[in-house]
Every structure is written in structure tokens, then in C-alpha cells.
Design brief:
One of its GO terms (biological process) is proteolysis. This is Peptidase C1A papain C-terminal domain-containing protein. One of its GO terms (molecular function) is cysteine-type peptidase activity. Pfam families: Peptidase_C1. This protein has 123 residues and is mostly beta strands. The chain has a single domain, classed as Alpha-Beta Complex (Cathepsin B, Chain A), CATH 3.90.70. It has helices spanning 9-12, 26-36, and strands at residues 16-21, 39-46, 56-57, 64-78, 81-87, 99-103, 115-120.
């Protein structure tokens, strides 16, 4: 029984043709984002990340909390700091309406070393 989602699951389901790892450097990640759109990234989370609001995140204090997977959408520069623009899954009332910026080009919190992308299976 579906209470609010009026779509057949089997008709709406999508499959991937392949997945691949993006080399761990800024230029390869930017090229993938530009060519094919968002990628999946995993990064190390520390206690100070939960208090993020809207600045470019840089880990400064707090204990290790684990690894978290997110959707990397793009990049930019704010006040001279290069950043990745990332969508989080913690709801739109966290961070900057569910998004955050994290330091780019320094593999901050290992975010540039754990990036994958996928090719959709188009039938």
C-alpha cells in the first residue's frame, strides 16, 4: 500500500551500467563534474561538522565521528577559499539548507580521495 507516492516502483527504478573511481585530485574531479554531473564522495566527519552553518568548512576541533557519503555538485571560491559544493542527507534544516561547502584542493577530511561516479543504464 502506498499512501502518497503515486508511481509504480518497477517502472520508476533505475539501474547503473557501471561505476568507476575518480582519481584523487582536484582537476579530475572538476572534469567529471563538468562532463557528467554530480558524483558520490565519502569523507571523514568530526564533531565540529554537525555545527556547520554556511561558511567553507574546515575541521578545527572535535573527535572523529565516522565516514559519511554525500553528493558532490560543484565548486567555487568564497573569500579567497576554494571549496566543493556538496549536498548532505541530513535534511534541509541542517547547514545551508541541506548543503555545505568544504575546502577544495587539499583533500580536506579525505573528501578528494573517495570519489566515485556511475554511468546509468539507459534502456
Amino acid at each position: 500500500m502506498r499512501s502518497s507516492y503515486d508511481s509504480d516502483y518497477d517502472k520508476n527504478k533505475r539501474r547503473g551500467k557501471s561505476i568507476y573511481t575518480i582519481p584523487s585530485d582536484e582537476e579530475h574531479i572538476k572534469a567529471e563534474l563538468f562532463k557528467n554531473g554530480p558524483v558520490e564522495a565519502a569523507f571523514t566527519v568530526y564533531a565540529d561538522f554537525t555545527d556547520y552553518k554556511d561558511e567553507v568548512y574546515q575541521h578545527t576541533m572535535g573527535d572523529y565521528d565516522g565516514i559519511h557519503d554525500v553528493k558532490m555538485l560543484g565548486w567555487g571560491v568564497e573569500n579567497g577559499m576554494k571549496y566543493w559544493l556538496v549536498a548532505n542527507s541530513w535534511n534541509s534544516d541542517w547547514g545551508d539548507k541541506g548543503y555545505f561547502k568544504i575546502l577544495r584542493g587539499e583533500n580536506h577530511c579525505d573528501i578528494e580521495s573517495k570519489v566515485i561516479a556511475g554511468e546509468p543504464l539507459i534502456e
